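Technical note accompanying the year-one report. For the benefit of new consortium partners, we illustrate the data format agreed upon in the data management plan: each record pairs a sequence with a C-alpha cell string. No post-processing was applied to the example shown here.
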Amino acid sequence: MDGKFMRRYESFQKSLDALSEAKERDISPREVLRKSYQAEIICGEVWMEMLKVRNSLAHDYDGEIIKQHCRRIVDVYIDKFYLLRDKVELLLQD
C-alpha cells in the first residue's frame, strides 16, 4: 500500500474514533459532517443541504416540510448514503 492511502486510512480511523465518542457524549450532526469532510469520507454541498432539511424536519408538525423535500430525499439523499456505505466498506476491506 502506498503512503497516501495509509495517511487517508489513518485519518479515517481517527475520524471513526471521534465519531464513536458520540455514543459517550453529545455531538452535533454539524460536527460529524465537519469531521467526515476533513477525513474525505464525504464531499459536496448536498450533505449540508441534508443537514438543513433534517433540522427543519425536526419541527415539521403538520407534514408540510416533508412534502416539500420528499422527492429530493428519495432521488438524491438516499443515494448519497449508499455511496457513503460503499466507501466505508471499501476502506474497511483494505
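Partners are asked to follow this layout when depositing records. The chain has one domain: 3-93.
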